[in-house]
Amino acid sequence: MELKGKRIALGVTGGIAAYKAAELVRLLVKQGASVQVAMTEAATHFVTPTTFQALSGNRVFTDQWDSGVANSMAHIQLSRDADVLLIAPASADFLAKAANGIADNLLTTLTLARDCPLLVAPAMNRQMWTNPATQRNMATLLGDNVTVLGPASGEQACGEIGDGRMLEPEEILAEVIAHFQPKLLKGRSVLMTAGPTFEAIDPVRGITNLSSGKMGFAIARAAREAGANVTLVCGPVSQPTPRGITRIDVTSALEMHAEVLKRAANQDVFIGVAAVADYRPKIVAGQKTKKDGAPPPVIELVQNPDILADVAALPQPPLCVGFAAETQNLAEYAEKKRRAKKIPLIVGNLIQDGFGGDDNTLILFDDGGQQPLTPAPKLELARQLTARIAFLLENPNAPH
Ligand code: C5P
Fold this sequence. Notes:
The protein is of the alpha/beta class. It has helices spanning 18-30, 49-56, 74-81, 92-99, 106-112, 126-130, 132-143, 169-179, 214-225, 253-263, 307-312, 330-341, 351-354, 378-394; strands at 7-12, 34-39, 84-90, 118-122, 147-148, 152-155, 161-165, 189-194, 198-202, 205-208, 229-234, 246-249, 269-272, 279-281, 301-303, 319-326, 345-350, 359-360, 363-366, 369-372, 376-377. The longest helix has 17 residues, at 378-394.
């Protein structure tokens, strides 16, 4: 219930993507939001108001001069009651009007009369999107602090391929949820690692660690929701990339080390969430090794570089945060790691509490001692960790 108690006014304009707005309403309601839909006349040619009424459980507004609304002021009513006005899909025509303060129908009028933030999800043909007039209007809207969600690139209803597709309903939902998160890391840059590394023995075999990447990806999402510019270097995982994040895929610890060290100097924060393999085979066979009745091979290992310790040892290191996943003696091992790597904050968890699952139990260790977080979904814990990091950035010398 990420949107519990939130009031969302959803404006639907005329475009084929209007059918996706129906799914969006369902997702918003499922997350606890109350949704009031207003449609342009053109939108009603694509989806009927009845559909939105059934999905939102609320009356749908289509007419500025609705006699059923006190004083015929539907626009004022809708903008007064909303925490956010979301237009999805937003047509080129709507965006042009919104950019120029035109109020000639219910939707444009309530946009102009609103007292809440405006989020728009453009949807149009690629030619309309790249038209200088539309781009000019988008620049105006951005300058007016309107949040623009997308558009995505891909195949369009007209058969053409290019920019202008509306974001998928799930993506818009994630952006709406992000909108309501406090911008504790606004303007900050966060570099992270996540997932396991894979150390090749030969072209088909290797040594790895168990790691789903879920905790790391949740932290990347939470940091981005908090307004940070996030770069995530990750080993082999099958997690979908949260929107708005720069993702760099690597396989081995050496690759991860190289990609991180290339970028670490200019970051505000580095968070090492990856389960980096401590060792790698000294020799990687060029061909698949065969049994052929030979005795089992002995694989000589060499130590991998410690990415986190190397970042922390930079002349002007970012704020470094590490993870300690243990099966026992969590407090002792976590604190030992924190001192050995010379980092201000380490996040400890017992492997049996969180591995692979959606929930976790975390304890934060810093100069002030340990602070257990209540067991919760990984995204919720990631948001608490983000808040802690924001506090440390603001108060570098505070006894935590
Ligand atoms: O040294 P250990 O693996 O116990 O410490 C775990 C922490 O150090 C994690 O934050 C992990 O991402 C980081 N680490 C690293 N490079 C390594 C080993 C661990 O960045 N080679």
